[in-house]
Amino acid sequence: VTDLIDEQMDAFFKYETELIRVRKFYQGAAEEVAYYAEESMRLGETFAFTGAEALKAASQMAQMKTVLGESAAVIAGAEMGLLFAEIGGMETDMAMKRLTSLMQQTGFALGGLTDETYRNLDAETQANVVRSNTIRVLDQLNTIENSSVATMEEMTFVLNQFASQANLAGESMGDMASLAALLLEAGEESSRAGTGLRMMYSRLAVDGGEASKVLADAIPELDAQTIATMNLTDVITALAPHYENMSDLERIRLTQAVAGNRHYVKLQKLIVNHNRLMELQAMAYTGQFTALDEFANRQESSLYQYDRAQAILENLRVEIGDNLANAYVRALQ
């Protein structure tokens, strides 16, 4: 009996610890916070996560409330983060941290709407905007994962190191993810792939910088000023035909000027594998392997059914532990 009571209390304390974090980060009335926590717990069960695991992710999304606005939009964001964790095989807090970081760096969740336009939408429409734009990104990530050796966990780690610079250059999320996946396929470590891509975007963006001047010399149809406004994908596409006719020394000098001495080999891999890059980007654009289809496939597995049953059982322990804790407090009064 003592062991059973300990199990209930342990489950309750884990849940309560995460609930405290949600209360800390979610700015709103107590009733609104409680509703957000309850919805997060319900969504957690849908994706086979315990209430504590769901709240661990929900507290991360709660920090986006100032960006996402209405409660319904924040709940939609939490739902998408839990879906990402499930299909990506990631811990809930890691998945949500990666997702919210990309939201902040690129603003993809608002789908290009200005802040003013988004704020003028009603709660349900805001939620639909967040849900539809996020599911679009998850479709792209899942499609690339299913079509390459890169995992979503690896891709999002790389993306979070250069997404801000790439977004400023006009690169789409699908194209960014394809660049990351290609470097991972080519044997680059995730920690260095992102650093290399960030360096390339930074050097390309310098108006009148060495990178754009060297590229202009190699691509006769483009001038340095135009190149400085282009994204990396378009630069590689324009450069690839000319790159084939260069000597090894010319290739080294050019890629060093664009990517730097530490990362020029990464750029060479992107150029040499240009056709593969285009293939990945085309697949990402179509979103052939959707996130919801991936989740549906997982739901059919015995592992998912077991995990979901365990999550429901753990949440029942939380409820019992809550009652025991209240009874204990009352007994001491």
Explain what you see.
By secondary structure, the chain is mainly alpha-helical. The protein has 19 helices and no strands. Helix 5 (71-88) crosses helix 18. The protein starts with a helix and ends with a helix.
Give the helix tally: 19
Measured by DSSP, the beta-strand proportion falls in under 5%
State the helical fraction.
over 70%
Give the mean pLDDT.
91
In the predicted model, the low-confidence regions spanning at least 5 consecutive residues are: none
Radius of gyration: 23 Å
Number of strands: 0
Question: What features would you highlight for this structure?
Answer:
single chain; 333 residues; mainly alpha; 19 helices; elongated
Would you kindly provide a brief summary of this structure?
The protein is mostly helical. It has helices spanning 2-25, 30-46, 51-62, 65-68, 71-88, 92-106, 115-119, 123-147, 152-168, 173-185, 190-204, 210-218, 224-227, 232-243, 248-259, 264-272, 274-286, 291-299, 302-332.
Give me the secondary-structure topology.
Elements: H1 2-25, H2 30-46, H3 51-62, H4 65-68, H5 71-88, H6 92-106, H7 115-119, H8 123-147, H9 152-168, H10 173-185, H11 190-204, H12 210-218, H13 224-227, H14 232-243, H15 248-259, H16 264-272, H17 274-286, H18 291-299, H19 302-332
